[in-house]
Amino acid sequence: MRVLVINSGSSSIKYQLLDPVSGSVAASGQVSRIGESVSDGTATVEHHGDGHTLEHDGPIADHAAGLRVVFDLFERSGHPLAEAGLAAVGHRVVHGGEVFYRPTLVTDDVVRSIEELSALAPLHNPANVTGIRSARELLPDVPQVAVFDTAFFHGLPDAAKTYAIDAKVAAEHGIRRYGFHGTSHEYVSGQVAELLGRDPAGLNQIVLHLGNGASASAIRGGQAIDTSMGLTPLEGLVMGTRSGDIDPGIIPHLARTAGLDIDGIDELLNRNSGIKGLSGVNDFRALFELIESGDAAARLAYDVYVHRLRRYIGAYLVGLGRVDAITFTAGVGENNAQVRADALAGLSRFGITVDPVRNTAEDRVARHISAPEAPVAVLVVPTNEELAIARASARLVA
Ligand code: ADP
């Protein structure tokens, strides 16, 4: 049995064909620069399978055109999708609003509802909808499943999900904290329970998903009780290009004094802030090169990042009362030992330690980085949102 997982972004589509049981990936690839006029001969679609890479280098007009090229590349590789034994196509959908809080079989009504939620996620949901529409056209006989980034946080306690603004205005406009990266937080916290050989129901966990986007969550007995992202994926931790938490007063101040309109402010906070806004680069490898060369702005960006991260860890320690496991995941969390060490430095009185040898081991698998016998397990667990989406999709159609 196989599931095709599709993650459509505003100008890209990432996909994987995988076995939801074993997790083995039969093929994967990426469509990039959708909608751009591409004339430099660089690949706009890369398809990997059987140890080979196939490329397409023409411009890709839209998501439908991109998926058509992907389907052609499956044919050209000798493994047409029609013969792949597809049980389902699983789509990552960013915002489920109040409407969707579990994996959902896609129907016309579901597509319309996801589209209506675009007001809450203008950068993401429209792209997700185009991806779903195209896949339904190209594979009309295969069930399509939508898996929502917000779903895991649907049950956040009222105190954690409510913004202290005029309740009538909030209710009218769907303004509450939804949380994102839920598929990753759920998958990773499940892996932690397995790794510890414990029933998830008895575990209190903090999960730190640190990629380009970054979020933290506090999980009690398998249920999220708090998370750092809010109405949108802009709130919370400092990210590659996003500010995370700021004083909301900065927004009217900028509108009045910097002559920025609301789209300009949105762009500033989402694309030109965070690590990039402070240092000029958004990739952590580039940031560390700058720090090593003595760049003071890069150093400050890192210090602000770690400061914010520790603030959330502290809040979640208090929120949970007792913590059994703290887990790092995603690009930075899985690969950057310095961030892990700095995030948890000086917390041994709380039973939290990072063993320097374990922390710097060049290991790609889920593992402990706390000292043996430490009361709080500190772990690195690679996230795998594609596998989680494939499993959720396969379960739903079974
Ligand atoms: P997203 O999926 O949100 O785009 P990722 O989870 O891929 O992001 O994380 C991207 C970040 O992870 C980048 O800042 C990158 O520098 C960092 N990263 C990825 N691989 C490594 C690595 N091998 N060493 C250090 N940092 C890495």
TrEMBL record:
Binding site residues for ATP: 14, 209-213, 283-285, 331-335
Positions bound to substrate: 92
Record site feature (Transition state stabilizer), residues: 181, 242
Pathway as given in its UniProt record: Metabolic intermediate biosynthesis; acetyl-CoA biosynthesis; acetyl-CoA from acetate: step 1/2
Matching Gene3D superfamilies: 3.30.420.40
Molecular function GO terms recorded: acetate kinase activity; ATP binding; magnesium ion binding
Catalytic center residues: 149 (proton donor/acceptor)
CDD domains to which the protein is assigned, alphabetical: ASKHA_NBD_AcK_PK
Keywords tagged on the record: ATP-binding, Cytoplasm, Kinase, Magnesium, Metal-binding, Nucleotide-binding, Transferase
Catalytic class of the enzyme: transferase
Family: Belongs to the acetokinase family.
Name used for this protein in its record: Acetate kinase
Lineage: Bacteria, Bacillati, Actinomycetota, Actinomycetes, Mycobacteriales
Gene: ackA
